[in-house]
Structures are given as C-alpha cells and as structure tokens.
Amino acid sequence: MSLHTAAITGIGSYLPEEKLTNFDLEKIVDTNDEWIFTRTGIKERRILPKGLGLSYMGERAVKQLLEKTGTDPLEVEMIICATITGDYIFPDSANQIAYKVGATNAYGFDINAACSGFLYALSVGAKFIESGTHKKVIVIGGDVMSSIINYEDRTTCVIFGDGLGAVLLEPSQNGQGIIDSKLCADGSGVEFLHTKAGGSKSPIDSVSLAAKEHLVYQNGGPVFKRAVQGMSSTVKEVMEKNSLSKDDIAWILPHQANNRIIQTVASMLDFPLERVMVNIENYGNTTAGTLPLALSDYESQLKVGDKLILTAFGGGFTWGSTYLTWAYNGAEV
Description:
This protein is α/β, with parallel strands linked by helices. The protein folds into two domains: 5-175, Thiolase/Chalcone synthase (Peroxisomal Thiolase, Chain A, domain 1, 3-Layer(aba) Sandwich), CATH 3.40.47; 179-332, Peroxisomal Thiolase, Chain A, domain 1, CATH 3.40.47.10. Helix content is 32%, strand content 24%. The chain is built from eleven helices and 13 strands. The strands form four sheets. A five-stranded mixed β-sheet has the order 1-7-6-4-5, with helices on both faces. A four-stranded mixed β-sheet has the order 8-13-12-11, sandwiched between helices. A two-stranded antiparallel sheet has the order 2-3. Helix 8 packs parallel to helix 9. The chain is globular, with a radius of gyration of 19 Å.
C-alpha cells in the first residue's frame, strides 16, 4: 500500500468571454429559451473564438493554477490533458500546454474518454504520485465543443459549450486526496454518441463533410438511461466499498450534462440537492471540463477533510466515480 495519497492542492480554470445564450440560439435554430431551460437547465454557454484551440484555454488555466499555488513551472513533472478536441490529431495538447507555460521539464499526453475524461486522467495522475515517482502532476479537463457541434441540430447545439479546468496533484502524508475510483466502459455505446468522421476508419472527405459526419451525433434517450444508471451505480459502489453513508459526504459532483440527469442521479442516491454541485446553467456541457470547472466555482466552499464523490458519464460509453478528501481550505486561497 502506498505511504501517501495524491491530493488536489490547487485549481485553475478558463472560460471564454463570449457567451451564447438561449436567446441567441433562438435566432439560429427552431428552439426557445423555455424549451432549452426546461429540458437541460442551461441558460448560456461560452464559445471560444475560432483559431485559438484547446491549448489557448489550457495555457491560461495552468498559468492561473501555477500562480495560485506558487508553483514554478520547472517543478511540474507531468501534464495529463483529458479532451476530445485537442488542437491537432497529433501532437498531444498536453505537451503544447507544457511548452506554452514553460513547464519544459514535464512530459505529458492526452486522454480521450469524452465526458469521463477528467476522472480517467485524475486516476492516472494519482498513480504516478502514489508510486513515489512524481511529486507534481497537473491534470487538465476541457473541450472546445463548439468546434464539433452542428448548429443546425437543436438537440445537440443547445447543450454544449467551451471551457477548461486544471488541478495540481501532490503527495499527501495524512490520507487526504484521491482514495478510490471505479471506472467503467462499454464500447457498444458508440452507436448512440459519437463523431463518425475524422478518424482512421472514416477520414474526412467531401461526402462526410456534406453529411456533417465530422460533428457530434447523439441519441439522447439511450444516453440518458445509461448515464443515470452508470453514475448512480458507481457512486453507490464506491460508497459501499469505503463504508460511507450519505451523511459522510460533503458534496457530490456529477458531470454537468443535463440538469434532469443531475437531479435523477441525486434522487436515485437519495442525496440532498443542496449538497450537489451544479453550475450547468452558466456553462452548459463542457464535456471533460465540467468537473474541474465546478470544483473551481465551488472552491471557496471546500474545507480540509471534506469528502467528495465525483461522477461522470461519457460517449463510447465511459463512466465512473472517484472518492477523495479535500486537502485545503478554499476560502483561504
């Protein structure tokens, strides 16, 4: 057993300034504010200007994180970036961000697990800390979803936005940090949520472009059912494994996909909504960015020793839950 755990010791975030409101979308597709908000809980989302890319957001979030934690970029040993919208197919955005922030001693890689990406990346980063081989690992979650959204499809364009968050992992000797994770996948889910063109199986060409196969496709019904089942079941499993009652948990942080999903998961867990982190109204679904962005928004309310469970569900399918104890008083940052 490891002598130390991987603790989150700081958070940085970046959100584009441009807002796309429900009223803006009324001018683009056949929809309206009431329809969108009733079904999703979203009022607005942020949009990154074209040509900037994920590393633009990553650079700003990581620089904020380094400043807040007083960390020299040369001390960072690894950067893991969870995203499905990197700057390029290759190279990885993690290494582009490392270069831009001056973390020239770090190496990194991207993880593609859609909306569960941050949980996957957090678990991987924690193992490098727990092994004793690394002392400072940055884990990033973010996406430029506006780059792969069909703004003629009202079932998807109202949901997604752009944003990114980053956390610093460091060793903790007092048991604070990431305690346990349950991560899952089911490749048959590709049928219901995917981007068809752009990979080696279906390269982008004039036919796929005309059919908009390079943009996100989602069949919402099956995704909803699997999402609430996957998130609630893994939360229960993690709680049972670690002998936790709902009174032990300070906060549950679910992936901000849809407010109906969030509320249904809370109901299935019989967990009070006042202790469920929710910020979907302002940002929409930023895919791998939702969990770190919510941590950033709630940072000032978090206290040393708070027990949190993070849970997510993504295309493919991927899903899981992570149990951690908080390592610092957010109000003092």
